Structure formats: structure tokens, C-alpha cells
């Protein structure tokens, strides 16, 4: 009987350990958020940010967690040094006054065991708006090179530039912007 009690206790402790929240730090060289928009209807322009940091806390058993991402707005990469400077100006990101963009969430939405959305707040140019990210993919497993647990995800959302005081040239340059946030993170 004591052996059965010990096995039951061990099983309970191991499932409790699984249910504990896990914290992952953003791995910046594989986490480069990007944005795309229509340029006069001629083409869809794609740009990215080269410097991102933050952490993700995930409790898959309890279906809870949090996301805290900071993007260096000065790391915007349009593919053109001239346009990088233009888009960092007052009409757009105004990086002299607002050097970072942030996304923060304490609400993760699951369907069954699958994470499908993150409901949070995006802050750009000091303006904070609710933004729900649709999670297109999520994979957590041991990282084959780092030999640590890791999680990666790609999430998307549509926002309006004008909501963040960046609406210059709309509607010719699309007011609607598609955000894509690919992240890889390493368990701490």
C-alpha cells in the first residue's frame, strides 16, 4: 500500500511540474517582426525590424500565459537606407521621441490544446490600442542545436496606421497594415 501511495504522490508531483508556467526569452536573431502594406496599389511593400527582445510565459496545462515584446523602432529595415530614415521621421515612427514599439498580453486564447490567439495591447508612438494576434503556428520542443527547450510561433494581425498617428499618404498608401510576428524563444 505504501508503494502505491508513493507512486501516486510521484505522479501527482510530476503532473504538477508539467502544469507550471514556463518562461522563454525571445531569441533575437530569429525574431524579426515585419509589416506589409499596399503602395499606391502598385505593389505590396514588406519591411521588418531587426532588433526584438522580450519574454513569453506559457502554461499549456492551465492554458494561460503572457507575452511581453519590445521592438527597437530604429531597427526598421525597408531595404533602403534612405527610406529607413524617412520612415523613422515624425510622420511615421518618430523614433527620436518613440524609440520602441511594445506588445503586451496576459490573455492567451486556446481551442482545445491549441493556442489560437493572443489578446493584448500594441503601443506605437505612445498610443496604445488593443490588438489580437492570430497564432498561425506554435511549436515547442528541444532545440536541436542549443540542447534547451524552445518555442517558436508566427502570429499575424491587421492594424490601421492612422490609429497610431501614422496615416500620412492614406489612402494612396494603404492605411491597413498586416503585421507578422515570427518569434523563436529559449526556455529559461
Describe this structure as you would to a colleague.
- Helices cover 13% and strands 53% of the residues.
- It has an eight-stranded antiparallel beta barrel.
- It starts with a helix and ends with a strand.
- The chain has 188 residues and is mainly β.
- It is built from two helices and eleven strands; from the N terminus they run αββββββαβββββ.
- The chain has one domain: Lipocalin.
Structurally, how many domains make up the residues?
A: 1
Major beta sheet, specifics?
8 strands, antiparallel, barrel
Can you identify the CATH superfamily? Answer: Lipid/polyisoprenoid-binding, YceI-like
**CA gyration radius, whole angstroms:** 20 Å
CATH topology title: Lipocalin
Helix fraction, binned, reads: 10-25%
In terms of structural class, how would the helical and strand content be classed?
mainly beta
Strand % is: over 45%
* Order of strands across the main sheet: 1-4-5-7-8-9-10-11
Series of H and E elements: HEEEEEEHEEEEE
- How far apart are the first and last residues' alpha carbons, in Å? 38 Å
**DSSP summary: helix tally:** 2
Determine the mean pLDDT: 91
CATH class: Mainly Beta
Q: Give the low-confidence spans.
A: 4-17
Overall body shape: globular
Write down how many β-strands occur, each being a DSSP E stretch of 2 or more residues: 11
